[in-house]
Design goal:
Distance between the termini: 32 Å
Helix content: 10-25%
Structural class: alpha+beta
Radius of gyration: 11 Å
Shape: globular
Oligomer: single chain
Length: 69
């Protein structure tokens, strides 16, 4: 089973696209943006999910990194 939340690779302009259940939820530029996006999606314990591999998959890049090289 795949994780419900995917934080995709860093965009060339910075930020990362987030999908929730395979639907694009938005573009985030830091953990605060990600937490707010998850809260808006109804995940109220969002801070607890950031490092939980059962909830979030960080693709093609380090977790918590949002800036292009």
């Amino acid at each position: 089973m795949s994780t419900p939340i995917v934080v995709h690779r860093i965009e060339q302009t910075g930020g990362r696209t987030v999908t929730i259940n395979d639907e694009i939820a938005g573009l985030v530029h830091d953990d605060g943006d990600l937490i707010e996006l998850l809260r808006q999606a109804g995940i109220y314990d969002a801070e607890q999910c950031l490092d939980d591999p059962d909830w979030i998959e960080w693709r093609e890049g380090q977790a918590h990194r949002y800036e292009a090289a």
